Structures are given as C-alpha cells and as structure tokens.
Predict the 3D structure of the following.
Amino acid sequence: MRNSYQQAKFLLSCPSLKGCPPDQGYEVIFAGRSNAGKSSAINTLTLQKKLAKVSRTPGRTQHLVFFELDQDRRLVDLPGYGYAKVPEHIKKQWHTDMSEYFNKRQCLKGAVLVMDCRRPLTPFDQMMLDWCVSINLPTQILLTKSDKLKKGAASNANLKVKRAIEQHPYVDVQLFSSLKKQGLEELWTKLDTFFGYVD
C-alpha cells in the first residue's frame, strides 16, 4: 500500500488530547528524542520533503501533529522532549497527556520509536518503550542516521538494541537512514501490518 503513505497530508495539530480526532480507525505514533530524526523519517516514509517540519532547534514540536493517510488511518507525530528547552510544568503536562493517550486511545495500533543509532536507548527512549510494552503495543524501533556509522558499528548498534528488547515479543528493531533511504521497504512492510493493510 505504498501509495497510501505518499498521499499522507496534514490533518491537524493540537496541544492536548482534547483536540484529537475521534477515537476510531487506526493511529500509529512516531515518538523520539529531540533531534533523533523523527521528522526526517516521516518525510522519507511518505516520500514528501516538507510534510513534517524539520527544525534545527531540538524540541520545536510541542503539539500532537496528525497526518491523514485516508479516512480511517493516521500517523501521529508526538512531541520530542528529550532535551528540549521547555518549562518543567510543560514537561509534566506532556507526561500526563502521553500516559492518558497510551492508556485510553483505542485506535492506537502501533508505534515507531525513533532513536539515533549512535545514542540508542536513552532514559527517554526507555520511558516510551515501557509505555508501549505496558499495553502490548506493536512497536518498531528505527535506529536512524545509520549512514553516520560504518557498517560494522551500525550492525553492533542494531544488535545491542535487539538484545535489550528480546524479551518483548511485540517490539522489533531496524537500521534506517533518511538520507540513503535505507530500511524504507522494511518500515513500509511493518506499517502495512500496523494499519491493517495486511494480516
């Protein structure tokens, strides 16, 4: 269903769960530490250059941003708060909202956790992973910027994360490069499953 991703379009942006679309259909979230390459991954996935805004300033995304694939399917870009310079009360509110989103959002069908392959499994990454695991949410870890490492080092990073998640049956990991489009077919295939395009 490659055309579905290419047809993705901006739907809405909201600062809290109150503005979310109706809780129906399929949603797949993209989460990641600030500057991990989340926006670039979304743009590569959809074969669009400017769908998700790429900022030089980490942490600029402080809203839930929804992209529509079709009437029933949405990508959701979550705020990246790894080391964003935002007030503590906003971070606490974000934590509350995300906890509620994970626990109550019935249309949440999958997660893509974006990690820089040079610095995977930070405490923020682990927190997001724990949320996904707690509700048995199918999760794909993208180790981005794999082109920044030599082949052996990238493989070692991938193996390290594989070992860390081997006890979680709903979690998988892959290398990904937006620049080289490495891992794009694998990501498409995984998303097809999340979105119910294939069994």
